[in-house]
Design a protein that fits this description.
Layout: E1 9-17, H1 21-37, E2 43-47, E3 61-62, H2 65-70, E4 84-85, E5 88-94, E6 99-101, E7 117-118, H3 121-134, E8 138-141, E9 145-151, E10 154-160, E11 163-165, E12 171-176, E13 180-188, H4 197-203, E14 215-224, E15 234-240, E16 249-256, E17 260-268, H5 278-285, E18 299-309, E19 320-321, E20 324-326, H6 342-361, H7 370-375, H8 380-386, H9 391-417, H10 457-463, E21 476-478, H11 481-489, H12 496-499, E22 505-510, E23 513-518, H13 528-532, E24 538-540
Parallel strand pairs: 1-2, 1-13, 2-8, 5-15, 13-20
Antiparallel strand pairs: 3-7, 4-7, 5-6, 9-10, 10-13, 11-12, 14-17, 14-18, 15-16, 16-17, 19-20, 21-24, 22-23
Function: Accepts electrons from ETF and reduces ubiquinone.
Domain ETF-QO/FixC ubiquinone-binding: 215-308
Pfam family, one: NAD_binding_8
Length: 554
């Protein structure tokens, strides 16, 4: 393919990769600052989803601090995306047959959800997209950024992926060359484990001196429930069953809008047992006697999954580098115990935009906007993350029961005295190194789904509206297939079949022995494979434009 035609190019002041809350907040803030100063700044946002919001998934209980700062009038806007305020806040610890509801008085103030809103983060992104376009931001959905343009050691833009490439790697009759989008500064807001962000982290050593990044996988369903089971504004979280004490995670259950219930389950990806299936743990959770009645007579109408950055304060990489910056979950601004990150995503976009605007007004281009990196830890984002920095390490080290209790104590001491006896703890090993060989564990057995309350992966993927052009190169790149067989299969028992929530990976018996089958068309872009593969032998890259899930109200 060396004889491909040259790409056309367009010039902008700022290119933003990813139309999530962070990227759109960056674009909106830049345009606001430019309007206030009577300046003209050109901003373009490229988004791999078929539309803004198509790939956005979260619980979501949203702290409005970000929206309040970015668009102070949003609460009075008839088009506002969030309308259900939290009215009840419950926290449960579950056992196999029962559980206890923990009194809110024992919870640190930062865990209080009153004043927050329940809704769809995808719809928040759509709202921000409309506001950005009203300000003159150009948004190109369905155009994944596939390559970072680097010249003289500086980022100078991105190139969108070529379209019309056949599975064999050759151009077909529908071939269209990608476009170069060149800019003075390029902002990466791809979300967790962004395919270009991880390249920038490695190339510019952005994680030097930082702790390992940690991850979870969040799996979500959207239900329409019967009116008698609906409690508008209810927020309920749980931990414990069905996960074993040495595997971290928990659930959410939120009632919002018109008889909608968002239910989901997070599994921390540092679990050890390769037979654990986050998807099946979630299905099993819904059968708990304190949970299942909510869904009686209801209908499941949505499904999705995504990775979550969980490293927090000690794992945030350097945010600036020559010609570019990281914002939102590309940087890892999720507050794990609060199960919230969208507020910090918006705040980081605003903070980044303020420093970018100053650089542009000063006539700068392609240099490092180091002031952004130097400012975030003393901002509200830093305050939010620092006070919970030890919760995840304590949970990982001491298990759910003791770890959560110690984490609560740490949060109280930090809140009251701004001091922790634990200092700042390390997370330990990266997630992909935590799996034990199959021979050292007891296999976990899961019941077959009943099709009423519990479901299989393929019927779930159907509800995500996932679609990929079939005649295109597989976007899940196995670097060494022999290593995959010798290690992932022979040593660890094929955990990719279980950690993938979409049925993408299968080890299939055949005449020539077992073979690895990749059903790439099922991929919901959660990127768990890129994180959890024990040999880091799977590389997730962007598929052809617009492919993936098309989430509605998620």
């Amino acid at each position: 393919m060396s004889d491909l035609p040259a790409r056309e190019s367009m010039e902008f002041d700022v290119v933003v990769v990813g139309a999530g809350p962070a990227g759109l907040a960056t674009a909106i803030r830049l345009k606001q600052r430019a309007a206030d100063a009577g300046a003209d700044i050109s901003v373009v946002v490229v988004e791999k989803g078929s539309e803004v919001g198509a790939h956005i998934l979260s619980g979501a209980v949203i702290d409005p601090i970000g929206l309040d700062g970015l668009l102070p009038e949003w609460r009075s806007d008839p088009d506002r995306p969030l309308k259900t305020e939290v009215t009840a806040d419950e926290f449960m610890y579950l056992g196999h047959a029962g559980g206890v509801t923990l009194p809110n008085v024992f919870m640190p103030k930062l865990m209080n959800n009153h004043g927050n809103y329940i809704g769809s983060l995808g719809n928040v992104a759509r709202y921000l997209g409309r506001k950005a376009e009203e300000l003159g931001v150009e948004i190109y959905p369905g155009f994944p950024a596939a390559e970072v343009l680097i010249e003289d050691g500086k980022v100078v833009g991105v190139a969108t992926g070529d379209m019309g490439i056949s599975r064999n790697g050759e151009p077909n009759a529908n071939f269209t060359r990608g476009m170069e989008l060149r800019a003075k500064y390029t902002i990466f807001g791809e979300g967790a484990r962004g395919s270009l962000t991880k390249q920038m982290v490695e190339r510019f050593g952005l994680n030097a001196g930082k702790d390992h990044q940690k991850y979870g996988i969040g799996i979500k369903e959207l239900w329409q429930v019967k009116p008698e089971h609906f409690r508008p504004g209810l927020v309920r979280h749980s931990m414990g069953w069905p996960l074993p004490n040495n595997s971290g995670g928990g659930s959410w259950l939120y009632h919002f809008d018109d008889n909608l219930v968002s239910v989901g389950f997070v599994v921390h990806l540092n679990y050890k047992n390769p037979t654990l299936s986050p998807f099946d743990e979630f299905q099993r959770f819904k059968t708990h006697p304190m949970v299942r009645d909510v869904f009686e007579g209801g209908k499941r109408i949505g499904y999705g999954a995504r990775a979550i950055m969980e490293g927090g304060w000690q794992s945030v990489p350097r945010l600036s580098f020559p010609g570019g910056c990281l914002v939102g979950d590309s940087a890892g601004f999720v507050n794990v115990p609060r199960i919230k990150g969208s507020h910090n995503a918006i705040l980081s976009g605003m903070l980044c935009a303020d420093h970018l605007f100053a650089a542009l007004q000063g006539g700068r281009a392609h240099d490092e906007v180091a002031s952004y990196e130097e400012s975030w830890r003393s901002s509200p984002i830093g305050y939010d993350l620092k006070r919970v920095r030890n919760v995840k390490p304590l949970w990982s080290k001491y298990g759910t029961a003791a770890g959560v209790a110690l984490g609560g104590l740490d949060m109280w001491l930090t809140e009251i005295f701004n001091w922790s006896p634990f200092g700042t703890m390390s997370h330990g090993k990266p997630d992909h190194k935590c799996l034990l060989p199959l021979s050292q564990v007891k296999a976990i057995k899961y019941d077959k789904p009943d099709g009423v309350l519990t479901f299989d992966k393929l019927s779930s993927v159907f509800l995500s509206n996932t679609n990929h052009e079939e005649d295109q190169p597989v976007h899940l790149k196995v670097k060494d297939m022999d290593l995959q067989k010798a290690s992932e299969h022979d040593v660890f028992g094929g955990p990719s079949q279980r950690y993938c929530p979409a049925g993408v990976y299968e080890w299939v018996d055949g005449e020539g022995g077992v073979r690895y089958q990749i059903n790439a068309q099922n991929c919901v872009h959660c990127k768990t494979c890129d994180i959890k593969d024990p040999n880091q032998n799977i590389n997730w890259v962007t598929p052809e434009g617009g492919g993936g899930p098309n989430y509605v109200n998620m």
